[in-house]
Specification:
By secondary structure, this protein is of the alpha+beta class. The chain is about 55% helix and about 15% strand. The chain has 4 helices and 3 strands.
Length: about 80
């Protein structure tokens, strides 16, 4: 991961985009301290996938805890299909 200031990145955007597509990640610093990250779309998608997987695992763990602590109602398919 490398750091580059906004003006340098703007003046050589093609170069930094090409490097990002080769796997490099850049932190682009700005005067207002609201820095941004430049990375390839593939890297971004992998990060999003990992983040979504973690959220899913957390939900699964909560469900398993609910089952373990008997905070669920268990019904058979027949019971679900029976109209009251």
């Amino acid at each position: 991961m490398q750091t580059v200031n906004y003006s340098t990145a703007r003046n050589s955007l093609k170069k930094y985009c090409d490097e990002a597509n080769k796997g490099e990640i850049y932190i682009i610093t700005r005067k207002n301290k609201k820095d941004v990250v430049l990375m390839s779309l593939d890297q971004y998608n992998e990060l999003q996938k990992a983040s979504n997987n973690i959220k899913y695992i957390i939900k699964l763990q909560k469900s398993l805890d609910d089952i373990k602590n008997k905070r669920v109602i268990i019904k058979t398919l027949d019971e679900l299909n029976t109209k009251k």
